[in-house]
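Input/output pair, single chain:
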Amino acid sequence: MSRPQPNPLGAAIGLVLALAVVGLSVMVMRVLDEGEHRTGSSMLGLLVFAMLTVIALTLGIAMFVGGRRKGLAAMKRLAPAVGHDPLTGLCNRAQLIRVARRRRPQKDRQVGLLFVDLDGFARINDRFGRHAGDDVLKIVADRLRSAVRAGDVVARIGGDEFVILLPSVDDPRDIVAVGERVVSGVAESSIIEGEAVVVGASVGAAMSAPDRFGIDVLLREADAALQAAKGQGEGRLVATPALSRELVDTAL
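Output:
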């Protein structure tokens, strides 16, 4: 069992209070020693002054400790939200990059990435307003969570753009399978203000290689594939040339 760690703040507070008590004691002794030379009101005034000094020190320390505890509590409450999107609860871009840099490719396992952009989202914002758009984003976030595998990371990186990181891929077809579940899942209708609405998802898919990995590289390649997917129409999935070659080799 670990030994309790000393509390430097508590020790400092104890020292300050001890010094205050010692100072009060010295003042009282001086008052008593000089009592015969002082009037009753003078002695009372000194005692009151000493007591008020100790009270002021105690209150000041208590306020300092209370403020520090509130600050620490606020930091603890804020910490989980720093790496997450406040609307959807998904990871944000910064957290995605931190996670990706910790999960590098392993032997016989690569890292996959899906870049997702919603089709028709602007129409919902224009027709129903931003609050309805926020509701759609939350619905899409839930569907993305349902489409991924255990251990995959879903992030909202801005607006209606999402990224799915697949940190452990031993078969490139797994990336495509998740991407296809994303396309079909997002395309299901949703009820917004009593009406059925539909958004689509265009997806760009990329995979690392043993000699080429980096979250910035994967994002750039997946984004290029995403633009190619959007150029083909709504609800399309396009793989990068490198991933496409891996898919062909795997099928042989």
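The first strand starts at residue 110 and ends at 119. The first helix runs from residue 8 to 33.
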